[in-house]
Design brief:
The protein is of the alpha+beta class and about 650 residues long. The protein contains 25 helices and 14 strands. The strands form five sheets. Strands 5-6-7-9-8 form a five-stranded mixed beta sheet. Strands 1-2-12 form a three-stranded mixed beta sheet, with helices on both faces. The structure holds zinc ion (ZN). The site of zinc ion (ZN) has 5 residues, from helix 18.
Length: about 650
């Protein structure tokens, strides 16, 4: 079958489509469960827009109204640029780049915007109380066009006040970093529990009459209209649960959405992590805290998926040997877990993406995030193979490796082992990396502050890199020979030293945690191995290429860095962590950056990718009973976004 993986392309984005193999073979009951969980995954879309910036919803709705109402020349320069801007806003769930977090620069004129707003039918305008068209335009124009207004979604480096300077909406106006730290510092200090809740996770911290108050995201609280819809779909899903435990999980999540009580969220997380029997699974809630400069507030996200039984045997092999991997890692003994608990690992097929997982989505998930739940109950770790496959298929034959890979030797390695070792690296990262190691008693889990995410990703990546080259991998039948790991080593070093730079604007620093982590590892290994020329940036015809001269020594370097990063985390050594990240993970050699950007531009590729979802539909007979659930892969990008705004917009 010829499946069309590429859907749309604009700015620095390529939109792909993923397949859901195995869906048809599921039972009707499972499909109905997936259907209602999928509806719940889409119901919260507006929440993320509002979390990312308080102007996002009104801007998206206004832009969509203009898009629908526009009757002029669709080939006009202004309209074309407007369309690109709207597509970018959809992709980023707001007016800031989803990865770089800088505000978009619109390519259309202020005059165009003003004229089209005035041309809207009065019902399409979202005027606040007492507002006129003039004041409405005056309010939105600077937010869209003035680069000094709300320039960055999340500020988390430098001397400025991270909370005041961030454009995101996790804190009310006027709330400062010192106030947030004091507010939650006091809460933490007063809680002597060994099982603390994730303070601040599900609320906006606001100043009311000079006093700080949490405005909780729950039924009856902030975002209630959207959360009520989520709850209503979850209630329908309960009826189709695969077993009693799964019904209890969904019901507990519903109780949490109703109460906003973080203890209930922990109860839900424990039930969820313990459920390894069900084939259908999901994530739905306020989960990841990357978007908050202080790592407290979580963005809303959702995925719906089912286990890929065959591929899961691979990860079960890995997790079944978790203790062996923990015992043999190069980490100091006192930072290791004596008993690695419940590392459950599976390969999944996603059927729906929502919130912060859409359109840009991770290829692996490891949850829950609370340290003590991971310690006492383990974590659930997944690799999303149908997404990885879509990436791989969409990139074949695009000229990238001809341009950046040193020679046919490395290209052959990548062709032969690239997809397998990439998947295995993700498996190791998720199944073992995040779950490995332990904090020393008394170490504050938040000690690494803004550097925590980067160092945590580095720890997991290094664990994977180190073990990919271990003879144990062959012994377990996971790789065919002792050469395979070289494909991932080459890809990783090339990406971390050079090619990931295409995602960053010239002159800017590396900001995003995963990217900082990759550069940190690659740069550190490059510098440490310099004397022995373990890795080189070699020139040919004026272009630089990564050449790895000694793969085994590179592995030793990865092991050394893994030991150090684990020590930093275990001891909560903020100074050393900051030093490592700032020294290797943040700054870019401008000359190299220019060269890479130039070579990349000539390939006409997009550095960022994301996905449209399939359309999931219930099939009913004439008595109104559901007889099947089907997937349709024909919906376009703009079409899907406009439909979601029509059918799933509640804020
Ligand atoms: Zn990770």
């Amino acid at each position: 079958m010829n499946f069309n993986y590429i859907v749309d392309q604009f700015a620095d984005i390529q939109v792909l489509r993923y397949q859901v193999p195995g869906f048809d073979a599921l039972s009707l009951r499972q499909k109905q469960l997936l259907y209602h969980l999928s509806e719940a995954a889409l119901m919260g879309r507006d929440i993320l827009y509002d979390q990312n910036c308080r102007y996002n919803l009104i801007i998206r709705k206004t832009l969509e109204a203009i898009y629908r109402n526009y009757s002029g020349d669709k080939g006009a320069v202004d309209f074309k640029a407007f369309e690109v801007y709207l597509k970018r806003v959809w992709f980023a769930n707001g007016i800031h780049h989803h990865y770089a977090e800088d505000k978009f620069v619109p390519g259309f004129s202020e005059e165009f915007f003003e004229r089209e707003v005035r041309a809207l039918p009065s019902g399409a305008l979202l005027l606040s109380e007492g507002e006129t068209v003039d004041t409405f335009i005056a309010r939105l124009k600077p937010v869209i066009f003035d680069s000094d207004v709300l320039p960055k979604r999340t500020v988390q480096s430098g001397e400025r006040d991270w909370i005041l300077e961030s454009a995101n909406n996790y804190y009310g106006e006027g709330v400062t970093k010192a106030e947030v730290e004091a507010f939650y510092g006091k809460m933490k200090a007063e809680d002597a529990s060994a099982t603390p809740v994730s303070f601040g996770l599900n609320s906006r911290l606001e100043k009311v009459n000079g006093e700080l108050k949490e405005n909780v995201w729950k039924v009856g609280g902030l975002y209630s209209p959207a959360i009520e819809r989520i709850v209503s779909e979850l209630e329908k899903a309960v009826a189709f649960a695969e077993n009693e435990k799964q019904a209890e999980i969904i019901e507990t999540l519903i109780r949490y959405y109703r109460s906003g009580d973080l203890k209930t969220f922990d109860a839900y997380s424990i039930l969820w992590v313990e459920d390894t029997a069900s084939q259908v699974d999901f994530v739905n809630g306020f989960i990841e805290t990357y978007g908050d400069a202080l790592g407290l507030k979580a963005s809303w996200e959702a995925t719906v998926n089912f286990r890929n039984e065959e591929a899961t045997r691979r990860t079960q092999t890995i997790s079944g040997n978790a203790q062996w991997f923990e015992d043999h890692s190069p980490v100091d003994k006192c930072f290791k877990k004596a008993k690695v608990k419940g590392v459950s690992a599976k390969v999944i097929t996603v059927a729906m993406l929502g919130g912060d997982c859409y359109p840009s989505t991770p290829i692996g998930i490891n949850l829950p995030n609370a340290d003590w739940i991971r310690r006492d109950y383990g974590s659930k770790s997944v690799t999303i193979e149908n997404i990885m496959e879509a990436y791989d298929k969409a990139s074949q034959g695009n000229g990238f490796s001809e341009e950046f890979v040193w020679s046919e030797t490395e290209r052959t390695l990548l062709r032969r082992y690239g997809f397998l070792t990439d998947i295995l690296h993700t498996d190791l990262h998720e199944c073992l990396g995040h779950g490995s190691g332990q904090l020393l008693p008394g170490t504050d889990p938040d000690a690494l502050k803004a550097y925590a995410s980067t160092l945590e990703e580095a720890r997991a990546d290094l664990f994977g890199l180190y073990y990919l080259a271990d003879p144990k991998m062959q012994e377990l039948g996971l790789v065919p020979d002792g050469e395979a790991y070289k494909a991932e080593y080459y890809r990783y070093m090339m990406n971390g030293l050079m090619t990931q730079l295409v995602r960053i604007e010239l002159g800017k620093d590396v900001e995003e945690a995963h990217m900082r982590n990759r550069q940190l590892i690659a740069r550190w290994a490059f510098e440490q191995g310099k004397a022995e020329q373990v890795v080189e940036l070699r020139r040919r015809d004026g272009k630089r290429y990564v050449v790895i001269n000694d793969y085994e020594k590179l592995r030793t370097l990865f092991g050394r860095l893994l030991a150090e990063v684990q020590r930093i985390k275990s001891e909560g050594d903020y100074e050393a962590g900051r030093d490592l990240v700032e020294r290797y993970g943040v700054k870019i050699d401008l000359d190299l950056h220019k060269e890479v950007a130039d070579r990349y531009a000539r390939l006409h590729l997009s550095p960022y990718k994301g996905f449209v979802n399939p359309v999931m539909r219930e099939v009913k007979n004439d008595r109104g009973e559901v007889t099947d659930v089907t997937l349709d892969y024909t919906e376009g990008y703009a079409e899907q976004m406009l439909r979601y705004s029509r059918e799933y917009s509640f804020l």
